[in-house]
Amino acid sequence: MKEFMQNIVLDRLSSEDRITPLHAEYVAPAINRGEILRYAGIPASVLREKNAEGFDDSYLRALSEKCAKCGKGCNLSTAFEEAERTGIPNHCTEKIDDNASEEEKALESMLDEAIKMVSDKLTYRVSYCCSKLEFDADGYPILPFEQHSEDLKKNLTGCCAAIIFAATIGSGIDMLIRRYERTSPAKGLIFQGMGAERVEALCDHFNAEVNAAAQAAGLKTHPRYSPGYGDMPITVQAPLLELLDAQRRLGITLNASYLMSPSKSVTAIIGISK
Amino acid sequence: MNLREYMKDNFLFLDGGMGTLLQEAGLQPGELPERWNVSHADVIVNIQKDYYDAGSNIVLANTFGANSLKFDDEELKLLIDSAIANARKAQELSTGTQEKYVALDIGPLGRLLKPYGDYEFEDAVEAYAKTVKLGVAAGADLIFIETMNDSYDTKAALLAAKENSDLPVFVSNAYGSDGKLMTGASPAAMVAMLEGMHADAIGANCSLGPDQLIGVMEEYLEYASVPVLIKPNAGLPRSENGKTVFDVYPPEFAASIKSLMEKGVRIAGGCCGTTPEYIKAVKEASVDITPVPVTDKGKSLVSSYTHVVEFGKSPILIGERINPTGKKRFQQALRENDVDYILNEGLKQADAGVQVLDVNVGLPEINEPEMLERVAKELQAVTDLPLQLDTSDPIAMEAGLRCYNGKAMVNSVNGKEEVMEAVFPLVAKYGGFVVALTLDEGGIPDTAEQRVAIAEKILAKAAEYGIAKKDIIFDPLAMTISADTTAALATMQAVHDIRFGLGVNTSLGISNVSFGLPQRMLITSTFFALCLEQGLSAAIMNPYSTEMMSVYYTFRALHNLDPNCTDFITYAQGLPKMVPAGSEAAAAGNSAGAGTVGATASATPATGTSGASVSPLQNAIIRGLKEQAANITKELLQTVEPLDIVQSDVIPALDIVGKDFEAKKVYLPQLLMAAEASKEAFEEIKKKMAAAGNGGPTRCSFVIATVHGDIHDIGKNIVKLILENYGFDVHDLGKDVPEQDVVDEVVRIHAPLVGLSALMTTTVPAMENTIKLLREQAPWAKVTVGGAVLTQEYADKIGADSYCKDAMETVRYAEEIEKSLG
User: Fold this and answer.
1) Average pLDDT of each block of 10 consecutive residues along chain B (822 residues)?
2) Of the candidates B20, B30, B174, which has its C-beta nearest A243's C-beta?
């Protein structure tokens, strides 16, 4: 990626760049519980309210009391960082629950259980290629696949290159969703939310890497853009996945309605400008 | 020389990458490489000649993606004919003196099969069959199925190959860095399934370099009794000076392959990034090593789509609860097509700790083949436990075995000629681990010796069908001691003699032994322990029985089958506290009441929007506490009429949650949790009513479906659940439902209400068509629509009677219509 950014700066991009897609595999990005619940249908505003209540002075005092009691001399900020990284409250942070109602606790514990269950069932894989970007006479970007999207044109205007990628967290989550949507729809919903949060976190992580490489080379990145946004049709998925050899490398296939399987997969284009 | 003969004593060398070389020769992204068989035949022939010259015994014709999903019939035939002809020409032009073969190459169709995708298994078999037939007609020497990353897809391809040719079939899967297929199968699981279906060689290709595949290969070599193959990538691709390069070079690659061959791999080549140079290096590196003989590993395996269960080591528990015999509630579920009930029974047993699920859905008035296929498929969508298909109908058995994703247990055959002749061919074709009962035309013999004699007869007959004794498990039949007190002794003797005399696994339906006696569990669990000591490999049993589970965990701990007693300790800690002997009655009383006491004591009663306090059952439902809801309902049913509980507790509680949901005081997850809790309460009520001989409480019927072309059913499932909670008789047709299917069901049951769901704008026309057809053929039905893209305006435009934005609105609408019907 670094090399690619250098080539952009030096105007040395070659069409070879797009032939074989590259592969990246990551460890699990940090879990954001609020995002999972938001995807499961609890509006962010409600969660913010709760958090605001949760972290007032008396609450923090209560926390330190508890930690004094446990006798381990815990550092609260470390405990919170740990909880945020793993997505599971530890003995210091779980005090939050003491003020929660019984049904909130049930939801929280369902979330804990879900996080534990998926931990060894997900993979974080990305297939990507770097492409030089030119525009046709009408100003549409010329990509390795055909499309005439006004919105994509707008997004990529001024770019000289793009990173095209597909990301997936694998089919393990689909199996869990499938299992629970029949037998415990509430859990099924939590896994849905979790899958959405996980694959977005993976995309964010990858995007951050692209941003960092671009920034180091003095380049700018545009917000990532996916088929299905605005007027860019999802039929573009077929050539895009083909380009990225996504079936072989990531196990992503399309169904008759152009939806991806594993369902928690994302494709996108990140424009790069000087 | 015949390939099957040649590979017995020799290494086989495969070819290397094709796609990467074609790209170098100018193949453009998006261009289908199979078309080059005609347009650039010379390029293909040259590459393949280079592989033969480098020493390849087998070159894959350029047919990886040649299937009817990508090409029409005419072009498909042309491309496959040309591809085989090209490879044949390369073979003739090559100066290599080794044995040379041409393989028909088959890659995945590129569509994921149901349940995770939308493609039918049988459609996949048909598509692969087309390619196989054309390849056979064009004169291929073998069929090479490769780069398969889903076990079900692999089965479809292998089945098509076996049903349409007698050629040798090699099967190669693509594993991820976690050592599993994309859909979760371990190498051992693939070995079990593919060997059962008689693949000639099996192994792995693509995705990784040779060193990353060492773990996968070791697992293959441990389990496989057929030759193992490897065809890895030249490492991983990376970008260098704007060009893509792979990071493992020929000498390194060859050294890695050589060490795998020393461990027992018999067939080797390369995949992406490898060239004739790599094959030459591999061939040279292996000159001085001799092939490790392929031996029968003698493992008794069953598998699911993720893992194997091995018999003959630690005892295996087979859950017996999916069986309608003597269970009114289960029979009712079968008659009503209530598959969810059956799935739950499976999942509960999985949680209780069984390793295999027995599946018996035979009832005189239902279509057993259809039901067994459906239940097997649906169970495999929610649990990864292997299944034991339990039916006496060979047609049902074939339906189940054919659709099963893995290698199933087959329950059962016996010594009767007729039965063996019906079942063994199915096992020979689809693979399977067969339960064989030691009875025959003369009935069940009294003595162990006679039962062993029948066992020997069965083994001989199985061998005629190519079924090895490792794939048989004998059930020497437990008979009740209340009729004959020597019965248990005979069974135990037979278990011992079959296991240690014949060297074959054994299984028993344990509980028969105590039939007709009081406190049956005492006899049953002790008998279980005694049989285990005689070498019993498996038991079909009730995993909800504490006594049986205790025997199982204790036996494993005592027999050094549970390292550090870890499983036993975990199990023991989950048990209720032991009570002093003699206080059994008191203990029973306690545990029955515990749920209710806990429910009322621990929870401060919830209050609804009205502020009025609520009953304990309402409280449990509102808070989404499933166990409490079930326990309190059980308690209430002792004194209150079932329908009164629905009216005075369940519905009011749902209303409170529903109103809070509408007022945005609770959100979707809580609404669903409450719905699940009330479902538990309903389940208890249904049980009671089924026992009393009538069905559950129902209101008017409601047909629900996600429309044709749309596979999003989260929203539809939520609406279904909530409607069921309110007592509506919901007929769920699933997702991607053709227009006429909806109409047919509405007409069949004369449903007054229909709910249609769509998520995508592209599928709204299908919704409009469904409504149009309903108006013509079922003018009485009221249609409500919902889903992400719909609005009131849209609903009006396509002619729906109503638009409901969520599940609660749908309930309100359904109630309104029901009222208007009177």
Assistant:
1) 95 94 85 95 97 98 96 98 98 96 96 88 98 98 96 98 98 93 94 98 93 96 98 84 80 97 97 95 95 96 97 97 92 88 92 96 93 95 94 97 98 96 98 97 95 97 97 96 94 98 97 92 96 97 96 97 94 76 44 37 42 80 88 92 86 88 83 87 86 70 91 82 87 90 94 91 88 95 91 92 91 92 78
2) B30
| Residue B679 contacts residue A186 (beta carbons within 8 Å) | no
- CA dist., res. B76 & res. A154, Å (int): 41
Q: Report the residue from B116, B147, B709 with minimal CB separation from A248.
A: B147
- β-partners of residue A69 are none
Structure tokens at A74: 């815990």
Considering chain A, what is the average pLDDT of its residues? 81
User: Residue A228: pLDDT band by 50, 70, 90 thresholds?
Assistant: confident
| Chain-chain contact of B676 with A184 (C-beta, under 8 angstroms) | yes
Predicted pLDDT of residue B340: 84
Strand partners, B302: B309
Q: Please state the ipTM of this predicted complex.
A: 0.77
Q: May I ask the CATH class of domain B300-554?
A: alpha beta
B542 close to B358: Cβ distance less than 8 angstroms: no
Q: Which residues pair with B294 in a beta bridge?
A: none
CA distance B623 to chain A (A): 5
Whether residue A40 and residue B668 make contact (CB cut-off 8 A), yes or no, is yes
From the list A178, A247, A249, the residue facing B381 with the nearest CB is A178
Extents of the domains making up chain B: 3-285, 300-554, 584-691, 701-821
Nearest to B124 by CA among B84, B81, B161, B170: B161
Whether B30 sits inside 8 A of A261 (CB atoms) is no
Structure-token match 């083949």, residue found = B369
At B601 the pLDDT is 35
Residue of B nearest to A144 (CA): B29
**SS3 of B429-467:** HHCCEEEEECCECCECCCCHHHHHHHHHHHHHHHHHCCC
Top residue of B672, B710, B723, B767 to mutate, by most chain A CBs within 10 Å, is B672
Cβ-Cβ contacts under 8 Å, B183 against chain A: 171, 251
For B501-513, the DSSP string reads II--EEEEEGGGG
How many Å apart are CA B749 and CA B704, to the nearest integer?
13
pLDDT of residue B598: 35
Q: CATH classification of B3-285, choosing from 3.40.50.1980, 3.20.20.330, 1.20.1270.50, 3.40.50.11540?
A: 3.20.20.330
- Name residue B343's amino acid: L
Q: Which pTM value belongs to this model?
A: 0.85
Count Cβ–Cβ pairs < 8 Å, chain A vs chain B. 167
- pLDDT > 90: percent of chain A: 34
Nearest CA in chain B to A238: B30
- Tell if the CB–CB gap between A183 and B340 is shorter than 8 Å: yes
CA of B182: which chain A residue's CA is closest?
A: A251
Residues of B in contact with A179 (CB under 8 A): 347, 381-383
Alpha-carbon span B533 to A19, nearest angstrom:
63
Q: How far apart are the CA of B476 and the nearest CA of chain A, in angstroms?
A: 36
Alpha carbon separation from A218 to A124, A215, A221, A272, A273 (Å, rounded): 28, 5, 10, 11, 10
Of A18, A25, A255, the CB nearest to B29: A18
Answer whether B785's CB lies under 8 Å from B734's CB.
no
How high is the pLDDT of residue B611?
Answer: 47
Domains by residue range for chain A, with CATH:
2-28+120-273 (3.40.109.40), 34-106 (no CATH)
Q: Which pLDDT does position A199 carry in this prediction?
A: 97
pLDDT given for residue A74 in this prediction: 55
Q: Shortest CB distance from B667 goes to which of A41, A125, A248?
A: A41
Q: Nearest-CA distance from A149 to chain B in Å?
A: 17
